[in-house]
Design brief:
This protein has about 350 residues and is α+β, with helices and mostly antiparallel strands. The chain is built from six helices and 21 strands. The chain is globular.
Length: about 350
């Protein structure tokens, strides 16, 4: 029989940021990964403290930005790589009214720069606003390196977790005795008999990988309707969409058309669509994650509902969950599962 402090089920942002807390604090654990590409893995990796439709900010934005920078510097110690791409967001204004609203809001919100910019590579007749403290995560390397680290250090179990194999009374899974188990499965939670009733809903997001005939010279993450930024081999990410209705597991032609039309509106040259990807974000009606334990099995926890801010929410509340489990710190009431009970 193996004895560990924790089992983690899942391999997205919630799971990996919680795993980091365990690595940092020298806890024993296993993480179960099916090896499927989760919504986290195909995400843009945007780190954005502003809401770019209404030019506002959101709950705990500065605290989450600060915490993420600390965590990424901690992860760099053992992966030997910096995953923070400090290329700020430029928001292309649709019209003069948007520009005026941005300027007005910048008096209240420090994330909105008062200085406007004009770029040459895309159409921006009303100029662009820069989002202070915005950046991107190197998503591909972040997941690849952390999964490799877990495997090399005997923390990774590459198999589908079988709920029927849990001895709930003795806290044993197969031949593993655990103190606590964390289910961080994204939309996979709907197959989880312990937490299938939590109110998370799938929000489907598509993005394109495109090859541009003329590269974008400016070193920013640019957004008008969607984000565009460079990948590798002269390809670019463009996306993503939000769809709560079309939740089948295949590409939606309407989403691809929406993206290609939107890119054509502000990129003035030809481009080719190389690939289309999609994922399902686990979202909650009140736009807050869900963290808490099972009503009967007190050491069974769920960590879910990160929504479109998976990086910021995942890291910040992984810290809150770890502190709750190890020191008794309260789970923040706005994310506590008990708010639905």
């Amino acid at each position: 029989m193996k004895n560990v402090d924790y089992i983690i089920v899942g391999d997205g942002y919630a799971a990996l940021f919680f795993a980091h807390q365990l690595i940092k604090n020298k806890k024993s654990f296993y993480l179960f990964s099916e090896g499927k590409r989760s919504a986290s893995f195909v995400s843009a990796g945007i780190i954005n403290p502003a809401v770019l439709k209404r030019f506002t900010t959101f709950w705990l934005a500065q605290e989450q930005i600060n915490a993420l920078k600390i965590t990424l510097s901690e992860i760099e110690v053992y992966t030997h790589k910096n995953y923070l791409i400090e290329k700020p967001i430029l928001r292309v204004f649709h019209d003069e009214k948007e520009k005026e609203l941005w300027l007005k809001k910048s008096n209240e919100i420090s994330f909105l720069s008062k200085d406007f910019l004009r770029v040459n590579s895309v159409k921006n007749p009303f100029e662009c606003g820069l989002v202070n403290q915005s950046a991107r995560l190197n998503v591909r390397d972040f997941f690849t390196d952390l999964i490799n680290y877990l495997e090399q250090n005997d923390h990774l179990i590459k198999e589908k977790f079988n709920y029927n194999m849990i001895n709930t009374e003795k806290s044993i899974y197969k031949d593993i005795q655990f103190k606590s188990i964390i289910f961080a499965e994204g939309m996979g939670v709907k197959d989880n008999p312990f937490f299938s009733d939590i109110p998370v809903n799938p929000n489907k997001g598509h993005h394109l990988e495109v090859r541009l005939s003329e590269k974008i010279e400016e070193d920013f993450t640019i957004k008008k309707k969607h984000f565009i930024f460079p990948l590798i081999d002269n390809t670019y990410y463009y996306g993503g969409t939000y769809d709560r209705d079309q939740i089948h597991h295949k590409i939606d032609d309407s989403a691809v058309e929406k993206l290609t039309n939107a890119l054509s509106e502000f990129y003035p040259n030809d481009f080719d669509v190389i690939n289309v990807k999609f994922g399902f974000r686990p979202t909650v009606k009140d736009r807050r994650p869900i963290i808490g334990n099972h009503s009967r099995y007190k050491n069974f926890y769920v960590f879910n509902g990160l929504g479109a801010r998976g990086i910021l929410n995942g890291n910040y509340f992984a810290i809150n969950l770890y502190q709750h489990l190890e020191t008794g710190e309260e789970i923040h009431p706005e994310v506590n599962l008990k708010r639905f009970q």
